[in-house]
Design goal:
Blueprint lengths: L1 H13 L15 E5 L2 E4 H14 L10 H24 L6 H14 L4 H10 L4 H25 L4 H9 L4 E11 L6 H19 L5 H8 L10 E6 L5 H7 L7 E6 L3 E12 L7 E12 L5 H16 L4 H8 L11 E6 L5 H8 L10 E3 L2 E14 L1 H32 L1 E4 L2 H5 L3 E2 L1
Antiparallel strand pairs: 1-2, 1-11, 3-4, 3-6, 5-6, 7-8, 7-10, 9-10, 11-12
Length: 435
């Protein structure tokens, strides 16, 4: 199993064991108190063992166990805070969503869900723990999405400027962060500067690889991944680094530079050229639909949509039936008219029905999350979306860059405001740190 889904399990275990605190044996030792909940030794051991399994054969890249334990425990603290905040905001993940996620994970690894369950058991992980891990990871993802929707915006001017400066080059980057608190004192700044200079000295002397130094010393959430930032275009790189990155050779460093989060070192791992997007066209459909919402009585809704479909089959005008009967307030007054759209725009079930019709055809009743539908496909066209796609991709890149900075700041704020009492290692001896 470690070779099959270890990357996923790393995320799941490190991002998803807060709920496990309620499910373990009563004698399990508390290693941290996080607001009104706890993290138990069994959770920490589970996450630690997973990291050790990922680094099998490369143990020399890991920091001493006490430092590794502190890093993993800090991730668990952040996970608990994220899932708690998600709950406060009404973010929920249902059992059906977890079932679907498990089915997808199994399929990606060429397993059935039952085979995945058996493989988890053979690796010593209970299926219930795995589900709880998935639930918490999905909650964290939903919280991040909600955060992006409310805090991140990208203007058309920003997209224009980024497209104008696009070079077709991508850069594989890694970084090391020495974090500073908001409003850092001169002493804290000096300590941070001394630490980042020390790390830079080790790298310059060749005493440690960049990835090993990131694992051991970085305060970034991706420290245990060697600080890997993946492939990025210039528009996805902070402005403080972007111009310099273009002049570097593989393996060279930038920094240290002080940014919003603290002092950073950046390494150029590799570069590659990307072809400019070729001309692209998509099929668009124009259609009308009638919606009948279930509202707790699915049988009645089905009977009603069947009646409306029978009327249309008998010669009634689709638009008139929609005006009189559709529960879609946005299209009802227009005779159910939806305008031009792509197949996936209104969800896979709706798109599949439209794509399966001929122009002028009317579907049988079908169900989506919104309720019961009948759709009439009016016409089809091919549309050049090359420029739209380029702009959408650029908008996504800029948004992701902004989100990374703002999300990390949000996590630091949330961590600083929380009550966290660490009861293991040196931090316990120092009395933990309450927020």
């Amino acid at each position: 199993m470690k070779t099959l889904i270890a990357p996923f399990l790393a995320a799941a275990l490190l991002l998803g064991t807060a709920a496990h605190a309620q499910q373990v044996q009563p004698l399990d030792r508390i290693v941290a108190v996080v607001d009104e909940d706890v993290i138990l030794q069994s959770e920490l051991d589970l996450a630690l063992n997973n990291v050790l399994a990922q680094y099998a054969g490369r143990e020399d890249q890991l920091p001493p166990r006490e430092i590794l334990q502190r890093q993993v425990l800090e991730r668990l603290v952040l996970v608990h805070l994220q899932t708690a905040r998600a709950g406060e905001m009404g973010v929920r993940v249902g059992d059906e969503e977890i079932d679907n996620a498990i089915s997808n994970i199994a399929a990606q690894n060429r397993l059935t869900p039952d085979q995945l369950r058996q493989q988890l058991a053979s690796d010593g992980m209970s299926y219930d723990d795995f589900r709880r891990s998935l639930r918490d990871e999905l909650l964290s993802q939903r919280l991040r999405q909600r955060f992006a929707q409310t805090r991140i915006s990208v203007s058309e001017a920003e997209v224009d400027a980024a497209l104008a400066s696009q070079t077709g080059e991508q850069y594989h980057l890694a970084h090391i962060l020495v974090a500073l608190p908001d409003g850092a004192t001169p002493e804290q700044i000096a300590t941070g500067q001394q630490k980042i200079d020390g790390i830079k000295g080790l790298l310059d002397k060749g005493e440690m690889t960049f990835a090993a130094a990131a694992v051991r010393y970085s305060d970034s959430p991706n420290a245990l991944e060697g600080g890997d930032l993946g492939w990025r275009s210039l528009d996805e790189i902070p402005a403080a680094f972007a111009n310099t990155i273009r002049t570097l050779q593989k393996g060279q460093l930038v920094g240290p530079i002080r940014g919003p989060s603290g002092f950073q070192l950046l390494q150029l791992v590799d570069t590659r050229s990307t072809d400019q997007a070729a001309a692209q066209s998509v099929t668009q459909y124009r259609a009308r639909h009638i919606l009948v919402r279930s509202e707790g009585d699915d049988d009645a809704a089905k009977a009603r949509i069947d009646t409306l479909r029978a009327r249309i089959a008998g010669g009634a005008d689709f638009a008139e039936v929609a005006k009189e009967n559709s529960d879609d307030t946005f299209s009802k007054d227009k005779g159910g008219e939806l305008g031009w759209f792509t197949q996936d725009q209104f969800g896979p079930e709706f798109g599949a029905q439209v794509a399966g019709l001929q122009d002028g055809g009317v579907s049988a009743p079908f169900k989506t999350q919104a309720g019961w539908h009948i759709v009439q496909r009016e016409e089809t066209r091919q549309t050049d979306v090359t420029d739209d796609n380029r702009r959408a991709q650029m908008r996504e890149r800029i948004g992701q860059r902004k989100l990374e900075d703002e999300w990390n700041r949000f996590l630091r704020e949330m961590r600083g405001e929380a009550y966290v009492d660490i009861r293991t290692g040196n931090q316990a001896a120092a009395g933990g740190n309450g927020g």
